[in-house]
Design brief:
With 216 residues, the chain is an alpha/beta fold. Helices cover 51% and strands 16% of the residues. It has helices at 13-24, 31-41, 44-54, 61-72, 75-80, 91-103, 118-126, 167-190, 203-214, and strands at 2-7, 27-30, 82-85, 110-115, 128-131, 137-139, 159-160, 194-198. It has a five-stranded parallel beta sheet, with helices on both faces. It has a three-stranded antiparallel beta sheet with strand order 6-5-7. Strand 5 and strand 6 form a beta hairpin. Helix 2 crosses helix 3 and helix 4 (61-72) packs parallel to helix 6.
C-alpha cells in the first residue's frame, strides 16, 4: 500500500503519519530524511544535494526527484509500501513522482489531504511564544502558562515571539503553500486518488476518517 499525505503547515500531518505507519507498517519517507541519508552515505546525488544545502539554497527538482526515485526503489519500500510526507511540493514534482512510480511498476493507492481552514492554521502557528529567560515554549490557545504572564518553569514575566511565528509571516507562508499545493490536489483529484479529511476535528477523529478510507 502506497500513501501520499498532504496538508498545509500546522494541519497535523506529523501526528497522522506516525499513526498510519504504526498501524499499517508502511515505510515513512520524508524528503528531509532522504537528503540526510544520501548525504551521509555520500551517494552521487547526495553529494550534489549537499552543495546546495551547504550554500543555504533549495535543492533543484532534478536532484530531489532523483533522490526520491532511489528511495522508492529500496527493498523495504518495495516489500512494505510507503507513506510519503513533504513531497511532492510542486505539480512538476507530482508529475515526476507519477513517472518514477511507473518505472518501478508501482502506483499510489491513496492521497490524503488534511484540510484545515487557513485562518485556523494561522491561529495555530502564530500562537506560539517563548520565555526569554529559560526558553520554555507556550501557545496562547493550546498551552498557555498556568498563571497568565508567568513562566511555569522559571517564574519569569518576560516573553517573546519569534519573527517566523508572527501572524503576518505565518499568513504569507500559508498563502505561498496554498498556491503551490492547489494544482497538486487538482491533479490527484482528476486521477480519483484524492481524499480530503477534515483536519479541524480531534486527532482521533481525523485518524478515524483516514482508517475508514483505507479499511482495516
Amino acid at each position: 500500500m502506497n500513501i501520499l499525505l498532504m496538508g498545509l503547515p500546522g494541519a497535523g500531518k506529523g501526528t497522522q503519519s506516525e499513526l498510519i505507519t504504526n498501524d499499517y507498517h508502511v515505510v515513512h519517507i520524508s524528503t528531509g530524511d532522504i537528503f540526510r541519508q544520501a548525504i551521509s552515505d555520500k551517494t552521487p546525488l547526495g553529494l550534489e544535494a549537499k552543495k546546495y544545502t551547504d550554500a543555504g539554497n533549495l535543492v533543484p527538482d532534478e536532484i530531489t526527484n532523483g533522490l526520491v526515485r532511489e528511495r522508492l526503489g529500496h527493498e523495504d519500500v518495495l516489500e512494505n509500501g510507503f507513506m510519503l510526507d513533504g513531497y511532492p511540493r510542486t505539480i512538476e514534482q507530482a508529475q515526476a513522482l507519477d513517472s518514477n512510480l511507473d518505472k518501478l511498476n508501482s502506483k499510489l493507492d491513496y492521497v490524503f489531504y488534511i484540510d484545515v481552514d487557513p485562518d485556523t492554521l494561522k491561529d495555530r502557528l502564530s500562537g506560539r511564544f517563548m520565555c526569554s529567560e529559560c526558553g520554555a515554549t507556550y501557545h496562547k490557545l493550546y498551552n498557555p502558562p498556568k498563571v497568565e504572564g508567568v513562566c511555569d518553569a522559571c517564574g519569569s514575566h518576560d516573553f517573546y515571539q519569534r519573527e517566523d511565528d508572527k501572524p503576518e509571516k505565518v499568513g504569507h507562508r500559508i498563502q505561498l503553500q496554498m498556491d503551490s499545493i492547489r494544482p497538486i490536489l487538482e491533479h490527484y483529484d482528476s486521477l480519483g486518488l484524492l481524499h480530503r479529511i477534515n483536519g479541524e476535528q480531534s486527532i482521533e477523529n481525523v485518524y478515524r476518517d483516514v482508517r475508514n478510507v483505507i479499511g482495516e
